[in-house]
Amino acid sequence: MNKLKQKNKLKQRNMLKQISIFEHLSRLKQISVLKCLKSVSSHIVKFITFRVWFRGIYCLYAKRPVQKDKVLFVEVREPAVSDSFRLLYAKLKKQKKYCIHTHYLRSGFSGKIEYLRRCTAMLKDMSNAGYIFLNEGCNVIGSVPMRKETVLTQTWHACGAFKKFGFSTAELKYGETAEELKKYPYYGNTTYVTLSSSEIAWAYEEAMLLQDHKECMKATGVSRTDVFFQTKFLKHAREHFYECVPFAQSKKVILYAPTFRGHASDASSPDCLDILKLKQTFGNEYVLIFKHHPFVKHPPKIPADCTDFAKDVTNEMPIDELLCVSDICISDYSSLIFEYSLFERPMLFYAYDLEDYFDWRGFYYPYYDLAPGPVVRTNEEIIHYIQNIEHNFDRKCVRKFRERFMAACDGHATERILQLVFCNRSDHP
User: Fold this and answer.
1) Whether 133 contacts 175, CB under 8 Å
2) Is 340 buried (19+), middle (13-18) or exposed (0-12) by CB count in 10 A?
3) pLDDT-derived band of residue 359, with 50, 70 and 90 as boundaries?
4) DSSP 318
5) Mean pLDDT of 34-52
6) I want to staple 207 with a disulfide (CB 3.0 to 4.6 A). Which of 152, 166, 263, 368 is the partner?
7) β-strand partners of 349
8) What is the 3-state secondary structure (H, E, C) of the chain?
9) 131: part of which helix (H) or strand (E)?
């Protein structure tokens, strides 16, 4: 009897296990089906939005004649005219012969309905514009059948070619699929792309799928770098810095400006710098300034006992001003190193997660070959380099880097861009 009972119990257990496994498999199937339905639904919504609504709106309003003096500045994410446009915008405004419109799409920062509304308003306005300026990818503009009379200039928001972007990230963890990027192109309809040097044209052609339109690439220099050659701007940057960081008076400045990790929507910032140790070593001679990427919503906190040595000025000062006042720049994979090379000052590359970042996004040039300064992975290496900076700093290496990647940035880029865009057309106002 005991044996029979034991057999029955075993049977019951096995049956319960089978039921449990079956239920688990059923749940997995349900989750898989739901994911599939969500994916299909998302694709249908995107198709209707881009191929039906956006195209339909643009084509409807494009029946009007082109307004040759209408100039649109389109900010995809920023809430105001950014430094990529500031000089171009100001000079065109001063000429008083163009009708200048601005649009702030706030991609990633506004709700879906609000973003749709902003895109719709922008498409209506651009449908009869003579000129459009963009400073990053925009699949809303890239996916409409834009009329030939409109000139679209991509000024991009960075110099050089460091970490990959656009189509170069297709199939990487950071990017979308190649099929999706071709179906809804971020850089379609481009007339000109302004570059910091002809050296990097190949990278932008790849990223923007413009290999068959090499004539679009123009090494005019980057407008936003012109301020680095203006004495008035340099003086203002120094004054503003001391207003924001009064304890920096009579001290040298270490700028820590890392790029973000993850996607733009959930961006985070590195938190591996040993601020206390840096203070103990350099507190009498330096101040440490943090500038996090604008995508980062919750940056790491500075320890309370280090606030007389370190300060986060992300929301107080723009990066171009900080580059002017910094004596040393510590970064990782940020393109700001190209602008900073114009000052020919020391740079360190704190790349403690290099392998992970390479798998995530990738680079256009071999990282160690590109970096115009030491690549370090520990706080000890950072400290050692700064302690011996007079012997460690290789100015020739930075100058060579500058000449290669920033050759067209000489303080007159804005003039050349305006000449290229407006004066090469017989119908310009």
Assistant:
1) no
2) buried
3) confident
4) -
5) 81
6) 166
7) 331, 375
8) CHHHHHHHHHHHHHHHHHHHHHHHHHHHHHHHHHHHHHHHHHHHHHHHHHHHHHHHHHHHHCCCCCEEEEEEEEECCCCCCCCCCHHHHHHHHHHCCCEEEEEECCCCCCCHHHHHHHHHHHHHHHCCEEEEEECCCCHHHHCCCCCCCCEEEECCCCCCCCECCHHHHCCCCCCCCHHHHHHCCCCCCCCEEECCCHHHHHHHHHHCCCCCCHHHEECCCCHHHHHHHCHHHHHHHHHHHHHHCHHHCCCEEEEECCCCECCHHHCECCCCCCHHHHHHHHCCCEEEEECCCCCCCCCCCCCHHHCCCEEECCCCCCHHHHHHHCCEEEECCCCHHHHHHHHCCCEEEECCCHHHHHHHCCECCCHHHHCCCCEECCHHHHHHHHHCHHHHCCHHHHHHHHHHHCCCCCCCHHHHHHHHHHHCCCCCC
9) strand 129-134
Q: Residue 402's pLDDT band (boundaries 50, 70, 90)?
A: very high
Question: pLDDT-based confidence at 427, cuts 50/70/90?
Answer: low
| Phi, psi (rounded to 5 degrees) for 262 | 85, -165
Residue appearing with tokens 């007079």: 390
Decide: 68 and 428 in contact? Cβ < 8 Å: yes
| CB contact at 8 A, 269 and 299 | yes
> How far apart, in whole angstroms, are the C-alpha atoms of residue 135 and residue 132?
10
Q: How confident is the model at residue 30 (pLDDT cuts 50, 70, 90)?
A: low
Is residue 130's pLDDT more than 70? yes
What tokens does 69 get? 């003096």
Q: Which amino acid is at 90?
A: A
Start-to-end CA span in the chain (Å): 104
Q: How far apart are CA 138 and CA 132, in angstroms?
A: 12
Helix axes 275-282, 379-387, angle to 10 degrees: 20
> From CA 133, how far away is CA 124, in angstroms rounded?
16
CA distance 195 to 153: 11
Tens-place pLDDT, residues 286-314: 999 999 988 888 899 999 999 999 999 99
Contact predicate 305/322, CB 8 Å: no
Region label for 306, one of left (φ > 0), alpha (ψ between -120 and 50) or beta (otherwise): alpha
Question: Model-level pTM?
Answer: 0.86
